[in-house]
Amino acid sequence: MQWDSVSDFFAMGGYALYVWGSFGATALVMLVESLLIRGQRKHILRNLRSEFESKPN
């Protein structure tokens, strides 16, 4: 596909709402997923650390 101007590119041939909405939804899902994974990792590390420290030698 070829565009004559930047505004034509952003208009996406009349499908801009669907195209940019899809990009936005994908970016949002990727951001939320990375934040959730980060939180799970911290939780797991915290649990492992507390288990290790509470074990008698």
Q: What global shape is seen?
A: rod-shaped
Strand content: under 5%
The H/E string reads HH
Low-confidence runs: none
| Euclidean distance between termini CA atoms | 68 Å
- Rounded radius of gyration (Å): 23 Å
Total helical segments: 2
Describe the 3D structure.
This protein has 57 residues and is mostly helical. The protein has a domain at 16-54. Helix content is 79%, strand content 0%. The protein contains two helices and no strands. It has helices spanning 6-11, 16-54. The termini are far apart.
List keywords for this structure.
single chain, 57 residues, mainly alpha, 0% strand, rod-shaped
Short recap of the structure:
This protein is an all-alpha fold and 57 residues long. The protein has helices at 6-11, 16-54.
Task: Please render the helix and strand layout as text.
Blueprint lengths: L5 H6 L4 H39 L3
